[in-house]
Amino acid sequence: MTFDRKTLLVPVGDDDGLRAAASMLRSGELVIFPTETVYGLGASALDARAAYDVFEAKGRPHDNPLIVHIAYPEDAEKIAYTTKLYRRLSDAFMPGPITIILKKREIIPDEVTAGGNTVGIRCPVHPTAHRFIELSGVPIAAPSANLSGKPSPTRFSHCTDDMMGRVSAIIDGGECDVGVESTVVLLTGEDSLKILRPGGVSRDELLTICHEVTFAEGLSEGEIPLSPGMKYKHYAPESPLVLLDGEAQKVKAYVKDRLSFGERCLFICYDEDVSDFPGCGISIGGKDDVKSHARRLFAALREADEIGGKMRVDVIYSYAPQRCVEGLSPAIYNRLIRAANHTIRRV
Ligand code: TXA
Ligand code: MG
For 44, which DSSP code? Predict the structure, then answer.
């Protein structure tokens, strides 16, 4: 596969462009589209060759399955075997940021599921995603549209940075609202499920529909991951990211100390902090605005890379994320801990 294709850029609200991109996708080409979580790198989920190309364009290991995007929750029945619990969950959370793993039907090629007999089903709520899937007339296999290992793209510019020349079209949908990927769930019984990847739908929300909700174990070396994507280094910026664990005052004092010793560093922090860290603070929102932290986290990691490359930065610091099961916290924890390759410094 060559990476010198002509890439059509579709502006926000350009319905003709959307139609052109949908017809490209239907004929086996790759198209990036916005969703409420992150941008997706789409291919027809019925086309083995196109699915193969997704892995090549992203540089993704071929053993990591793709999830399949549908326009309506009931479309799952055409590609997978749905269950009562699927219907309860989809009534409650679809369209929205959840992916439900089901047994796949024959029509979905092995290239999509990395040879496995299950398929992740996702029905996005972003209006452009919905319209694009509908116009395409096929289910769309799509991982996040970043180059493998990089932070997921939450803005159009992130997609053009990573993927110009590698795909046939990129559709602009503005900034993604949720900012972290969907919650991936495995149905383990009639009234129980396991969260394989925390995301936009929280444990507490799931508990309103399903009696038993557990998190998949932390993945130790050599353990076979239920969700193959979780075993790879992920979301990582170029400069090393170090998470500082301790009271906010101590974290800030630590970073100031390092700066005064002449260390070239960046600090992913909150609105309240930026004036204290001129030229090196990158805010992800107000201190207590967890939604904003999720929405802006990947953009902050990418910005750190951009500034870091120019300034030849030694290290990027961030507050260590909270270890709690409420709301978006597990999703943020999961992404940051991977981005930092588990480097936490107690201050
Ligand atoms: O929000 C999202 O989920 C975004 C947008 C584009 O929809 N997509 C996304 O896809 O994050 P991706 O491929 O970057 O992450 C999907 C995760 C991976 O960790 C993958 O291993 C896991 O879901 N996964 C996919 N199919 C699976 C399956 N059949 N069984 C278990 N895990 C699966
Ligand atoms: Mg991804």
Answer: E
